[in-house]
Amino acid sequence: MKTMRQSINLVNKVLFISLLFVMRLYTASAQNNWKLSTEKDGIKVYTSMMTDSKIKAIKVECDLNATPSQLVALVMDVNTAPYWVYHVKSAKLVKQVSPAELYYYSEVSLPWPAENRDFVAHLIVSQDPNTKVVTIDGPAVPGFVPIKKGIVRIDNSMGKWIITPLGPDQLHVEYSIHVDPGGALPAWLVNIFGTEAPLQIFRSLKTQLQKSTYKNTVLAFVAN
């Protein structure tokens, strides 16, 4: 009897592990099923349906005339986000953990009658010592800033920058993001907004990178 019970438990464990494996494969496949949505000014915007959300994931790819240090310096300079990030009303540093890690708060303005959104993001920079590819992870995190009246807090958001050096002052950047904006916004409206915003952001990003603040930047924790 004991041997039969152990056999049943073993089968159940194997089935459970197999199910998890299949689910991970299915999720990864869905997230990698990118479809080109638009291409302008050397900026490609892709969308992908998610298995557990009506909101599409967005991926942007383009080549830039910059070094990894310059782009990382711009992304980590969170207080300047309103100058180049589409519809960002305000952004401020909340906590600087290290030169390569920080938390920041941002409010995003939406057209009436929709309520503005806000979030706290955790930015972490890492670099592969062999390939020199830089990754910036930026998930939304709870806490740090109290919920504000009349503003919907975004709790679920995953953003990632992958910066690949191509040569002297040349790099390829891939930015992907999936956001659940919360509240009563219809998915179709969010998806339309999500396609236009990346183009505007990367056009402004190209301009911002040319400013003297970033032009000659060298970061100790990023090898160009």
What key attributes describe this structure?
224 residues; alpha+beta; Alpha-D-Glucose-1,6-Bisphosphate, Chain A, domain 4; 2 domains; 10-stranded mixed beta sheet; 10 strands; globular
Can you walk me through this structure?
Helices cover 29% and strands 38% of the residues. It has 224 residues and is α+β, with helices and mostly antiparallel strands. The chain folds into two domains: 1-32; 35-215, START domain (Alpha-D-Glucose-1,6-Bisphosphate, Chain A, domain 4), CATH 3.30.530.20. Strands 1, 2, 3, 4, 5, 6, 7, 8, 9 and 10 form a ten-stranded mixed beta sheet that branches. The longest helix has 30 residues, at 2-31. The N and C termini lie far apart (65 Å). The model is unreliable at 1-31 (pLDDT under 50).
Give the SSE layout.
Elements: H1 2-31, E1 35-40, E2 43-50, E3 53-64, H2 68-76, E4 88-98, E5 101-108, E6 117-127, E7 134-137, E8 152-153, E9 156-167, E10 170-180, H3 187-209, H4 212-215
Parallel strand pairs: 6-8
Antiparallel strand pairs: 1-2, 2-3, 3-10, 4-5, 5-6, 6-7, 7-9, 9-10
Largest sheet: 10 strands, mixed
The termini sit apart by: 65 Å
Radius of gyration: 20 Å
In DSSP terms (H or I, runs of 4 or more residues), the helix count works out at 4
Structural class: alpha+beta
- Named CATH architecture of the largest domain: 2-Layer Sandwich
User: Based on CA inertia axes, which overall geometry fits?
Assistant: globular
Write down the CATH topology of the largest domain: Alpha-D-Glucose-1,6-Bisphosphate, Chain A, domain 4
Number of domains: 2
Beta content comes to 35-45%
**What's the CATH superfamily of the largest domain, by name?**
START domain
List segments where confidence is low: pLDDT < 50 over at least 5 consecutive residues.
1-31
According to DSSP, the number of beta strands is 10
Name of the CATH first level of the largest domain: Alpha Beta
Q: What value does the average pLDDT take? A: 83
State the order of secondary-structure elements, H for helix, E for strand. Answer: HEEEHEEEEEEEHH
Helix coverage percent of residues?
A: 25-40%
